[in-house]
Amino acid sequence: MPKLTIDGKEVEVAPGTNLIEAAQKLGIEIPHYCYHPGLTIAGQCRLCMVDIEKNPRPQISCNMTAADGMVVHTQTERILETRKSVMEFHLANHPLDCPVCDQAGECWLQIYYMKHGLYDPRMTDEKVHKPKAVPLGPHVMLDAERCILCSRCVRFCDEITKTGELGIFHRGDHSEIGLFPGSALENAYSANVIDICPVGALTDRNFRFQVRVWYLESVKSVCAGCARGCNIELHTNHHRTHHNQGRRVARIKPRFNADVNEWWICDAGRYGFGWIDDESRLTAPTRAEGGRAVEIAWDDAIGGVVDALRGVRPEEIGILASPDMSNEDLFALDRLARHLGAVSVDARVPPATPGDQDEFLIRADKHPNTRGAELCGLAPRAGGLDGPGMLKAAAAKQLKVLWVFQHDLFQSAWPEADVRAALAGAGRVIFQGSNANATSAAAHLVLPSAAYAETDGTFTNFQGRVQRFRAAVPPLGDAIPGWDVLGRTARALGAPDPVFEAGRAERVFTALAAAVPAFGGMTYRGLGDAGQVVAR
Amino acid sequence: MAEKIFTRNFHRADSHTLAAYRETGGYTAVGKAFGMERTAIVEEVKKANLRGLGGAGFPTGMKWSFIPKDSTAPKYLVVNADEGEPGTFKDRYLLEREPHALIEGMLIAARAIDSHLGFVYIRGEYVQPWRVFSAAVQEAYAAGLLGKNIQGSGFDFDIVIHRGAGAYICGEETGLLSSLEGKKGWPKIKPPFPAIKGAFGHPTIVNNVETLSAVPHIINRGGAWFAGLGSKSQGGTRLYSVSGHVVRPGLVEAPVSITLRQLIYDECGGIPGGRRLKAVVPGGSSAAILTADEIDVSMDVDGLKNAGTMAGSAGVIVMDETVSIPEALMVVARFYAHESCGQCTPCRESTGWIYKITHRIVDGHGRKEDLDTILDVAKRGAGTTICAFYDGAVGPYISYVEKFREEFEALIRSGDHA
What we know:
Helices cover about 25% and strands about 15% of the residues of chain A.
């Protein structure tokens, strides 16, 4: 393992480590634009230069492999002046759109100018003009004047998606990022170029002009769009309802996880948060009365559930859980089902159209927690019915309670007639979920549950990795976490299991980890930011 | 009068033919080289003090020795016939008048570095040279001098001719390689160097047309002979492309030890119309300009380096007293702004910026801080770029302004920001 010295401090690194990464290990930041650990080396921006002893000229640190005995200086007079010069060159033709540019506040020209520039500008000639506000695809907007030609976006499309839509055209200071003729930036991961663009050249069309980034708060979470569970940050706008059209969740950004998604996220996942602040959110418990959904208090709602279950035999209960529910929700549901003696429990509802899957991140299973549902035992018990069986039984008036979680059964692969007959034939239909749909509209009792962005919890991805998500915003209206609905129901039924007393998701998880061997020994703290894989 | 090597046959109308080349001793060196150890060929070229004649002046024998001996990868010999340096027109005549010297030089070099595939990258604008060279290659194939088992030696060598499409940066060694590979002519970051990882990722030697054309003579008559023709650190003669204000512009073959004064006045007849010499660009536009007082300098690589300029491509541009140096700088600055590949930030931005300043000065809108801006920007960018293109631009930027500052200042004073 090579041992080298940077700014007088010694560090040992793995063979093949470049100097930017070696310095990072010591907490020394070497500024750079074109370098990205997930892409090949370009060596174009020239900002990362450092002085290396025995080398007469400064060298770019991105392309320099740490060697044993190397002595590196990142703060020499010459390097500080070089950085200033490189900043001046980067800004020579820059349009200074900051007041109208979405990147402001997270722009690396701003950040590095303040840190490494601070010179008085002297380029007083006419700047080069290039196309502005050019949509490259459904998600990405290009401003060619702001572009610093670091080529990260070109390399991303060449190396990661291998779709090659982008190139650099023309020459010299008239060079321009653009689409190859006849192409559009439409691949399934197109918006990642927005993240890796250090400046406001590539911006998010969905986020355009919505809210300033310094008004946003951030929590670490997990995408709920498919079974991969890409690690994300949820960026939310809490207080300024006059921005972002009042929506609380402003955007999703991918978060690095070496084992799940590296630096990337698919477009579907990135933009799959609209439902969280949508009008269709269920914000209060309701009871169907005379064809209308009448808002009731939680006590009434729980009372309604208890009423529905009174005198019902275990084989007359059907529970359709959802792989959109958290491990905590599913565990609480499993315990409640056991208390009720219910045997007809299932979590599998096939989608109307099978999901797409690729060789990269996208999984056909568009639920974040199918593994969690399996591991928590949300499957038919001995003598119990599966999903289709429950539909038939309900239609035949054999189910007194059909409790549906989250699904819109009318969007499933099950024939609409069967679904309609089941909802009509069941004694009582209870719907518990976050958003209204055709199924909730047919329910007698609707219980609003919090979205994953509004509560702590965990999902188990398709690889068996248990990952935490965190509350970014409070639940909308009277919605509460799913495990809390179930806890209140269970307490009202006199169920003794202590998990029903848990006031926090973490307590539910502790009970889950103690009870389900696959999760043995896991804690929220131990899961950290990267998650842990379940035991075999 | 020194012996002519490169231009010895230029007086013959048929000098480009295989027959004429053979008649004057051509294709004997290659037979000799096939019988030599590879290292012996390299040693002979080292002894000759042959320096690269495309612009960088790197010792040729040393460059060949950088090919890894233990590599089993295919090795490529690439000839740089892009000749883009303003003021230079020697390679075009070598291709048109003595193409077989290049072919024979390639064969010997290929034997030395164990290459079996050579590429000749000819700039797109050189249509006639390309036609003549292509015909010569065909002649060579027909005569069994290229292809499989050349002259029964067991050595195979093929030549692929590739035409450029009009970018100066494709004359930069690794820019050429990128273009050859079918990509944008962007120079590659070094390390790795071409001898280790060049064309298509394999060990590659890139040599200039003229450099390789000297090799058959070196093998035939020995490195010591070649070295003796020149200066202490550079052997042989070379072709000076002399243009501008001289009575007899054109190609001059002379020993590398010739002085600039001798070149201008003895070989080219001096300045026409009895006018005064003002300035000379000695080595292609990238070379720092020399004043009329600085022409007693030896025109070899080290001589010009010690004079603060460079031998470069030996493109000699002579300027008399009628030339406006600010205007000359504007023209040169426009060239570099136009030709910058744009890959790295210092060159991309400052070549355009400096051109705008020079244009403004020439147009009468110069400001007094402009000259210091040009000098400071040039010095800040030098040495920070991916390739030497920008350092080539810096040569004129700094030397024109520093050596003719008064002329620039007078132009600014007479402008509207005085």
